[in-house]
């Protein structure tokens, strides 16, 4: 579970709620007509802008960002180096069963292609095409929340106009001024909160997840092609280390040194 995302969303609503409660009553910030105008209106506009399939995919992606990624750069690099070592010792065919243990379909596909003897340029081309389409799908999901972030405040302003019109039309009825003003102001509040606490942060998180996934798969492509070329595992490791920051390299070296010390302790 992506704890930071959960903390941000839940904490954001708690902070706003506490802020309201400290200055007055929460009940005054619940208004059903405002909910219909802001959320109902913006959602209907989203149906005009996107297909059912795109909307369903975007909501699925929204829940996906709450999950912590199982893959990280260091794990992938270590896994590829292990494949390189095995291929060096036993040949590429030995990877066919080994790669089935991997949790990443992209890596499985790439290794399977080199095991089948596919031309290196074709391997790169196929994997990069798949990478490109993955990025486009992710951009579509992000575009959904970017659009909603723009539409929710806009419908909040529509609600404000509706409330002001109702208020001005009933100035002689003092009982109508309060509810009309509530619609006028709360719709703007709802739109701003939804856009700035939910839609914009989710779109940003999606962009970051996409960037991380593309980066990791680029490492996979380079590693797969290096294995196919029969490069020494040490050279493969050094080549892939170029993708890591200095901090990540130090972390990997520390883990490797710890593993060597443990093995030495067990042997003695």
Q: Compute the number of strand runs.
A: 0
Shape verdict: elongated
Encode the helix/strand succession as letters: HHHHHHHHHH
Main sheet summary: none
Number of domains: 1
Query: Distance between the terminal alpha carbons, to the nearest Å?
Result: 40 Å
Unreliable segments (pLDDT under 50, ≥5 consecutive)? none
Helix content: over 70%
As a whole number of angstroms, the C-alpha radius of gyration is: 27 Å
Mean pLDDT: 86
Strand content: under 5%
Q: What structural class is derived from the secondary structure elements?
A: mainly alpha
Q: What count of helical segments does DSSP give?
A: 10
Topology of helices and strands:
Layout: H1 3-23, H2 32-49, H3 52-64, H4 73-90, H5 95-98, H6 105-115, H7 120-169, H8 174-228, H9 233-241, H10 246-267
Helix pairs in contact: 2-7, 2-8, 3-7, 4-8, 4-9, 6-8, 7-8, 8-9
Description:
This protein is mainly alpha-helical. The chain has ten helices and no strands. α8 runs antiparallel to α9. The relative contact order is 0.14. The mean pLDDT is 86.
In short:
This protein has helices at 3-23, 32-49, 52-64, 73-90, 95-98, 105-115, 120-169, 174-228, 233-241, 246-267. The protein has 268 residues and is mainly α.
């Amino acid at each position: 579970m992506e704890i930071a995302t959960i903390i941000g969303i839940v904490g954001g609503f708690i902070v706003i709620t506490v802020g309201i409660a400290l200055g007055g009553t929460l009940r005054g910030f619940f208004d059903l007509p405002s909910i219909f105008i802001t959320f109902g209106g913006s959602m209907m506009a989203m149906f005009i802008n996107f297909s059912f399939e795109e909307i369903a995919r975007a909501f699925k992606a929204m829940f996906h960002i709450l999950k912590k990624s199982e893959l990280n750069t260091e794990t992938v690099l270590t896994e590829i180096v292990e494949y390189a070592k095995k291929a060096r010792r036993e040949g590429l065919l030995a990877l066919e069963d080994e790669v089935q243990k991997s949790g990443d379909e992209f890596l499985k596909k790439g290794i399977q292609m080199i095991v089948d003897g596919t031309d290196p340029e074709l391997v790169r081309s196929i994997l990069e095409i798949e990478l490109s389409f993955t990025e486009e799908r992710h951009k579509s999901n992000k575009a959904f929340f970017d659009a909603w972030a723009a539409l929710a405040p806009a419908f909040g302003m529509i609600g404000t106009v509706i409330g002001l019109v109702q208020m001005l039309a009933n100035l002689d009825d003092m009982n109508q001024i309060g509810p009309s003003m509530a619609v006028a102001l709360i719709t703007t509040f709802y739109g701003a909160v939804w856009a700035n606490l939910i839609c914009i942060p989710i779109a940003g998180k999606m962009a970051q997840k996409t960037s991380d996934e593309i980066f990791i798969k680029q490492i996979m492509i380079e590693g797969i092609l290096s294995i196919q070329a029969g490069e020494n595992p040490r050279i493969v490791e050094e080549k892939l280390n170029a993708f890591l920051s200095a901090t990540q390299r130090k972390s990997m070296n520390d883990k490797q040194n710890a593993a060597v010390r443990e093995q030495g302790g067990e042997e003695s």
